[in-house]
Design a protein that fits this description.
alpha/beta, Rossmann fold, 6-stranded parallel beta sheet, 5 domains, globular, Arc Repressor Mutant, subunit A, 731 residues
Length: 731
């Protein structure tokens, strides 16, 4: 047993060299030493591991630590061995060990040497291990990354669900659950599944005041933006997260050819390569790791200066935990995420093959991510509210540490709309999720609302003067303001909070932040209509649009066939004054620069001189050659009249991905001969009809074209015809 007279501060100094505990560490340790079930929610960087390591070292017997990742176990075992003279003080027991190593681990446990045994849940479930551990002196069981138990957690693992039964088989010992992220729903789920509802619960603040949160719209130039950002942190450590292995490899390669010391990290690499890349990062042989979420759990590197999300994560828990790897030493931590609703739709597609219950959970978690990404209120307040913590966005620590607070968006008085919203929630019997509340407000009678006869109520459609997006944004802000709450049991159902009744009876001012409006551009990129840092020169933009029309008339083509609007905006941002510089502008390329560019660069050159403009030293991103190789492959194979489906298959592309690649080729000014493919699907008259439409139309947007022909043509046919049209008239 632990000596009751032991001074915890002396023990802390002896084993770990620290003078003082931080945050809740001391009270958590005292709870564990008193043999009580204990539940700890402590953000990344809050010193969670020490909460079970120190009590394990102070007590007789072995503490079992259940952990989900081998990398995490290895790091922690190395750390504990570093504070003890005895190598056997900590061990892992998992699939990476051979028989001889397993015998050594068991011997050290039997001889009372091992204080901490790290196991994966799958290993703990093996009958041989359970039988062995049942005969040993176990001090307690710590379940690390306890959110893995919950289907509502960001990293659910089914093998975690049965842990309580396995622990009962071993011994009746205290259980300690620990996690860095848990909403009320996840917290409730963990306590219920581990059957420890009477546990002493300790919840640290989730606020990390040294982290700066920034969300930017994701455009085609995202890699260029990332390189510019990383080069602003020379020789500093950073992590870039991507959702797919393919994207990890691509981004790592682009960084490397642009002189940044970067390596990829994902589950597709062999264990040796992963371990090597992780060590290179820890030892600072490289600066940046580009990774899937497989990287970082338990990586104890205190001086990570930035965390970039190339793709938006699947849940706010994931986002919080991944951004939490920045600035763990209390120094600067910049958290930059790129957001496109396209990414959300891709994640929703991944969910479609899963069981219905899992889909519902996934969709609900994604909606929270959308809310965070699109909001223009304090991101810190939004994030902390998600974890059930209130935050004062005027006086709280780190109150100005996000893009929305540094560059506040416009606000409008929404007192009347809030009152209407609260009344509709009340009068629909508090039974709907956000979507159906919005449908009721705008008067959109779906099957559920009709079955409840809501379309016959006098409040139905009372808010139709506003768009659905407006009402969604207002619901998010009213939730955070504490007038509404989300039901935990029926996740996502909106209920009135106690304060709502007071507001309905006596409405007070409610200033609503106007959200960013993200407009879909036809090529799949996202632009924001809000003005901020990096905005293009509006005066030059007007002049360029005038020239665009003049050049279009001269060549007898629509203006968009000369240069598209995003290209003009990029010109008004970068001021290219040579054909070579113009060819680097978004969506231009060499062919188009040579064909139409002469007058544009002459105009911009005069404008720069007359207005005494200091041009930005624009960053030229070197290509890895992957895209240019694909471009060449497509040009060569369309020249040979190979069926488009075969071209796509041979490169492992979906057909719509091939169309996007072909669009990029023709928009940058290169000709593609695809008449042979069109002849297979459309007759001469149909091709002529669509060609004439594009020639006369003011826009090349596909949805406008589809509306014009009222369903006569498929979207795929229209896209291929647009590629052919641009190829013929603009290139």
């Amino acid at each position: 047993m632990q000596n009751p007279n032991v001074d915890l501060n002396d023990a802390l100094k002896k084993y770990f060299g620290f003078d003082n505990f931080i945050g809740l560490q001391k009270v958590v340790i005292e709870s564990i030493l008193s043999k009580s079930d204990t539940f700890v929610i402590m953000p990344t960087g809050g010193g969670k591991s020490l909460c079970y390591q120190l009590p394990a070292l102070l007590q007789e017997g072995t503490a079992i630590v259940v952990s989900p990742l081998i990398a995490l176990m290895k790091n922690q075992v190395d750390a504990i061995r570093g504070v003890s003279e005895n190598h056997g003080v900590a061990h892992v027991l998992n699939s990476s060990l051979n028989k001889g190593e397993i015998r050594q681990v068991m011997s050290d446990i039997e001889n009372g040497i091992t204080k901490l045994l790290y196991v994966a849940p799958e290993s703990l479930a093996k009958q041989d291990y359970t039988d062995f551990l049942r005969k040993q002196n176990i001090s307690f069981v710590a379940v690390d990354e306890a959110h893995c138990i919950s289907e509502w957690g960001h990293d659910f693992r089914p093998e975690y669900r049965n842990l309580r039964n396995i622990i009962n088989e071993i011994d009746d010992v205290p259980i300690i659950g620990l996690t860095a992220t848990a909403t009320e729903k996840v917290e409730e789920d963990i306590l219920k599944t581990l059957r420890m509802s009477d546990a002493n619960t300790f919840k640290a603040s989730f606020n990390r005041p040294n982290l700066f949160y920034d969300v930017r719209p994701k455009t085609k130039d995202v890699q260029k933006d990332i390189i510019r950002f990383v080069k602003g942190y020379p020789s500093k450590s950073g992590i870039i997260y991507c959702l797919s292995r393919k994207k990890v490899e691509e981004v790592a390669q682009v960084l490397q050819v642009n002189g940044i010391k970067a390596v990829p990290y994902h589950a597709g690499l062999d264990a040796k390569t992963r371990a090597r890349h992780q060590d290179m990062f820890l030892m600072e042989d490289i600066d940046v790791v580009v990774a899937t979420i497989a990287f970082g759990m338990g990586i104890d590197k205190p001086d990570v200066r930035f965390v970039i999300h190339h793709d938006i994560p699947k849940s706010l828990e994931s986002y919080y935990q991944e951004t939490g790897r920045a600035g763990r030493d209390g120094g600067e931590g910049y958290c930059l995420a790129y957001y496109s609703y396209d990414d959300i739709e891709k994640l929703e597609k991944f969910l479609s093959g899963k069981p219905v219950a899992e889909q519902e959970i996934g969709h609900a978690l994604l909606q929270e991510v959308v809310g965070y990404a699109e909001t223009s209120m304090s991101r810190r307040k939004y994030l902390l509210h998600y974890f059930g913590e209130e935050f004062d966005d005027k006086k709280g620590l780190g109150a100005d540490m996000d893009d929305n607070m540094r560059n506040p968006k416009q606000k409008k008085e929404a007192k009347d709309e809030v009152k209407l919203l609260l009344e509709v929630v009340r009068d629909t019997n508090q039974q709907y999720k956000s979507k159906n509340i919005v449908n009721t407000l705008i008067g959109n009678a779906n099957a559920m609302l009709k079955s409840h006869k809501m379309d016959q109520k006098d409040f139905f459609g009372k808010g139709q003067e506003y768009q659905p997006l407006y009402w969604m944004a207002l619901i998010r802000q009213v939730l955070v303001a504490g007038y509404l709450r989300k039901e935990i049991e029926q996740y996502g159902v909106i209920k009135l909070a106690p304060r709502a009744k007071i507001f309905i009876e006596n409405p007070t001012s409610f200033m609503m932040s106007e959200d960013h409006v993200y407009d879909e551009v036809d090529d799949g990129s996202i632009v924001t209509n809000t003005k901020g840092g990096g905005a293009s020169d509006e005066k030059l933009m007007k002049i360029l649009k005038g020239l665009q029309k003049t050049v279009a008339k001269k060549h007898n083509v629509p203006p968009y066939a000369v240069f598209q609007e995003p290209s003009l905006e990029d010109m008004a941002l970068k001021y290219p004054i040579t054909i070579e510089e113009l060819s680097k502008v978004y969506g231009v390329g060499e062919g188009k620069a040579n064909k139409f560019g002469k007058e544009f660069v002459a105009l911009i050159s005069n404008y720069v001189e007359e207005n005494d403009i200091l041009r930005p030293d624009d960053l030229v991103v070197k290509s890895t050659g992957v895209n240019s190789a694909l471009k060449l492959f497509i040009i060569q194979n369309t020249d040979r009249k190979i069926p488009l489906e075969d071209i796509a298959k041979s490169k492992g592309l979906a057909f719509d991905e091939l169309i996007k690649e072909m669009q990029r080729i023709v928009y940058s000014g290169t000709k593609l001969k695809i008449n042979y493919a069109l002849d297979e699907i459309l007759d001469e008259e149909q091709q002529e009809e669509i060609f004439d439409y594009f020639l006369e139309s003011e826009t090349d947007k596909i949805e406008v074209a589809l509306d014009e022909f009222e369903g006569d043509y498929e979207e795929e046919e229209m896209r291929l015809m647009r590629i052919n049209f641009l190829s013929e008239v603009a290139n």
